[in-house]
C-alpha cells in the first residue's frame, strides 16, 4: 500500500503505523541534493531534521499503545563526516564535520536519533551510506545527469577541475545492506555502508563517455566535459571505512563500478521516457546552484 504524505504530518504517520503495525520502518524520506540545500536550506531543515523528529514522535506514540516490536532504520549519509584526507577513511567513531546545509541537516537528524535511543529507548539504528547510483535515480544527481547529457548530446558539467572524489555504491547493494542492518543491526549502533570504490568526478565522466562509445552511441562535439564554477563549501573527498558492517553483519558490496555503470547506462537507454517525464522540470536543466 502506498501513501503519499508529508513526513512532518505526525498524526498521519501515526495513523499509518497504527493501522498496519509494521515490523520495521526504513526512513529514506529526505531532501538530498547538496546544490539545492545551498539554494534553499530551510526545506532541508524541515524535511531532514524536523521530519525525523515528527517521525520518531509518531513512533514513540505508537510504541506506548502497542506491545509490538518494531525497529527504525534511519538512512543517513557519508557527508556527515565532512572532508576526509587522501588514503584515510571515515569510520563510525569519527567526529561529525558537515559542511553544507544538506549534510548539517542529516548530521542533526543522526544526533537526534541517538539522543532518543539513549533517553527514550527508541529502537533505532543508523546507516551512513556513500553515493548511490542505479536505475530510476532522479536526474539532478551526477550520474543520471551525465548520462542524460550524453544521450542528448549536451556538455557534461563538472565542478572545478574535477578532482573531487566520491565513493559510489549501486542501489541494489545498498538495499541489501539495509535489509541486513534491519535484521541483524544492534539498536543504537551506526553502520557505514560503502563499496570501497572511489573515483574522481572527472574520471567518472570519462568512464561514462567510454561506456557510451562501447555501446556504439553516436556523439557529437557537444558531448564533452565542461568545467563549471565550483559550488561553495564543496568537500573534496568522501571515503568510508565499512569494516564494521562486514565483520559484524557479514555484508559486503558485490557490484563493481564498471559493471554497475554499464547496467545503469543500459537502463536509461531503454527507459528514455523516464527522462522525458521530468525534462520540463527545472532540475534537469540546471547543474544545481541558481545563477
Task: Give a short overview.
This protein has 11 helices and 9 strands.
Describe this entry's structure for a reader.
By secondary structure, the protein is an alpha/beta fold. It has one domain (10-285): NAD(P)-binding Rossmann-like Domain (Rossmann fold). The chain is built from eleven helices and nine strands. The strands form three sheets. It has a four-stranded parallel β-sheet with strand order 1-2-3-7, with helices on both faces. Strand 2 (71-77), helix 4 and strand 3 form a beta-alpha-beta unit. Residues 284-288 have low confidence and may be disordered.
**Looking at the chains present, what oligomeric state does this protein adopt?**
single chain
CATH topology: Rossmann fold
* Largest pleated sheet: 4 strands, parallel
**Beta-strand level of the residues, as a percent range?**
5-15%
Count of β-strands:
9
The poorly predicted ranges are 284-288
Secondary-structure blueprint of this entry?
Elements (H helix, E strand, L loop, with lengths): L9 H11 L3 E4 L6 H6 L1 H25 L5 E7 L23 H20 L3 E6 L1 E3 L8 H10 L4 E4 L5 E6 H14 L5 E4 L4 E3 H14 L10 E4 L14 H7 L7 H14 L1 H7 L3 H4 L6
Parallel strand pairs: 1-2, 2-3, 3-7, 4-6, 5-9
Antiparallel strand pairs: 6-8
Helix pairs in contact: 1-3, 3-4, 5-7, 7-9
Amino acid at each position: 500500500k502506498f501513501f503519499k504524505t508529508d513526513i512532518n504530518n505526525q498524526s498521519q504517520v501515526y495513523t499509518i503505523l497504527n493501522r498496519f503495525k509494521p515490523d520495521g520502518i526504513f526512513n529514506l524520506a529526505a531532501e538530498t541534493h547538496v546544490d539545492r540545500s545551498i539554494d534553499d536550506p530551510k526545506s532541508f531543515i524541515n524535511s531532514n531534521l524536523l521530519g525525523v523528529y515528527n517521525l520518531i514522535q509518531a513512533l514513540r506514540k505508537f510504541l506506548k499503545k502497542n506491545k509490538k516490536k518494531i525497529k527504525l532504520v534511519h538512512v543517513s549519509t557519508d557527508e556527515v563526516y565532512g572532508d576526509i584526507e587522501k588514503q584515510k577513511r571515515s569510520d563510525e567513531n569519527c567526529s561529525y564535520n558537515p559542511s553544507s546545509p544538506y549534510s548539517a541537516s542529516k548530521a542533526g537528524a543522526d544526533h537526534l536519533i541517538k539522543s532518543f535511543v539513549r533517553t527514550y529507548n527508541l529502537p533505532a539504528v543508523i546507516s551512513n551510506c556513500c553515493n548511490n547510483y542505479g536505475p530510476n535515480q532522479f536526474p539532478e544527481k551526477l550520474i543520471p545527469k551525465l548520462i542524460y547529457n550524453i544521450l542528448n548530446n549536451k556538455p557534461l558539467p563538472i565542478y572545478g577541475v574535477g578532482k573531487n572524489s566520491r565513493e559510489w555504491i549501486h542501489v541494489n547493494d545498498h538495499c541489501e545492506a539495509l535489509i541486513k542492518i534491519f535484521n541483524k543491526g544492534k539498536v543504537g549502533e551506526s553502520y557505514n555502508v560503502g563499496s570501497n570504490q572511489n573515483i574522481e568526478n572527472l574520471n567518472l565522466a570519462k568512464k561514462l563517455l567510454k561506456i557510451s562509445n562501447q555501446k556504439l552511441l553516436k556523439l557529437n562535439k557537444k558531448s564533452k566535459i565542461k568545467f563549471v564554477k565550483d559550488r561553495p563549501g564543496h568537500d573534496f573527498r568522501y571515503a568510508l571505512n565499512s569494516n564494521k558492517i562486514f565483520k559484524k553483519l557479514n555484508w559486503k558490496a558485490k557490484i563493481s563500478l564498471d559493471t554497475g555503470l554499464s547496467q545503469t547506462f543500459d537502463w536509461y537507454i531503454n527507459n528514455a521516457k523516464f527522462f522525458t517525464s521530468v525534462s520540463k522540470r527545472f532540475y534537469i536543466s540546471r547543474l544545481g546552484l541558481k545563477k
